[in-house]
Amino acid sequence: MNTKDLVVRATGELFGAKDTAAVDRWVAAGYRQHSSLAADGPEALRELVATLPEGFRYEPARVIADGDLVALHGTYHGFGPQPLVAFDLFRVEDGRLTEHWDALTPVVADTVSGRSQTDGPTTPGDLHNTEANRKLVTEFAQKVLKDADYSALTDYISAETYRQHNPEAADGLDGFGAAAAAWAEQGKNLVYRTIHRVVAEGEFVLVQSEGEFGVPVAYWDLFRVADGKIVEHWDVIAPVLAELPHGNGLF
Predict the structure, then answer these.
(1) CATH for 3-106, among 3.10.450.50, 3.30.450.20, 1.10.150.130, 3.10.20.30?
(2) Which of 45, 161, 177, 194 sits 20 to 30 Å CA-CA off 37?
(3) Residue range(s) of every CATH 3.10.450.50 domain in the chain
(4) Do 248 and 32 contact (CB within 8 A), yes or no?
(5) Residue 133's closest CA among 4, 59, 231?
(6) Residue 175 in this model has a pLDDT that exceeds 90
(7) Residue 176 — φ and ψ, nearest 5°?
(8) Distance of alpha carbon 31 from alpha carbon 43, whole angstroms
């Protein structure tokens, strides 16, 4: 079984069927947790699954596999009073889930672009260009996001076709610029300090970063690349909590 199928099956049994015995089938003894929702180890995951409330469900949007890493993008219903858009990232070793990171943010019903936080293309295409797309987005993340060289935006982003799923930004570079200006007025400048991971499959490239957005945050940015330019963007911006139920950090 490949890593993508393994993660989809394991998470389906854990969070779909709410089967606590799936922990024994799919989770490594040294399971390392980075989420703010659970402590380290398989027993903490078992407890989380056992206490999932009635009506809890996960609505998948897309899955991206890159070697031993598999990223899920979708929506959780029932974790709290409102649905939560989430990125989950799992590391797989020897047929077991061995490490997990995530970021969650509330669903916004009325977005500026009119697009939801998860709609759009779902299945990775353009697989033969995975490494070229990874290189493009990695350079963009370093030069534009981390180094804040916004003069290079059009070197990487298609100004004509750029589609936005951030709930506060309209489509196109003008939409991004207007949103960034509004955030700056609120004291929330986009500051990227460290790029931790880049996960790529075909046209999809997911970047996990750390920085500030008024407060310390984790940035999870998913980009879709077509014809050598970024044409679509989804994201989750989640606060970095001062205290976690483990000592592993969010990253």
Answers:
(1) 3.10.450.50
(2) 194
(3) 3-106, 127-239
(4) yes
(5) 231
(6) no
(7) -65, -45
(8) 9
Q: Is 244 helix (H, G, I), strand (E, B) or coil?
A: coil
**Range with the poorest average pLDDT among 2-16, 69-83, 176-190, 213-227:** 176-190
For residue 240, what are the CA distances in angstroms to 75, 151, 153, 250?
A: 20, 29, 27, 7
Q: For strand 27-33 and strand 84-93, is the pairing parallel, antiparallel, or unpaired?
A: unpaired
To 5 degrees, how large is the angle CA 64–CA 160–CA 237?
45
- Write down the residue that tokens 């009325």 correspond to: 110
For the record, the structure tokens of 169 come out as 């930004």
Report the topology of domain 127-239.
Answer: Nuclear Transport Factor 2; Chain: A, (3.10.450)
Sorted by sequence, the CB contacts under 8 Å of residue 128 that are 6+ apart come out as: none
Per-residue pLDDT tens over the stretch 37-90: 999 999 999 999 999 998 999 999 999 999 999 999 999 999 888 999 999 999
Confidence at residue 79, expressed as pLDDT on a 0 to 100 scale: 86
Query: For strand 229-239 and strand 163-164, is the pairing parallel, antiparallel, or unpaired?
Result: parallel
Averaged over 181-207, what is the pLDDT? 95
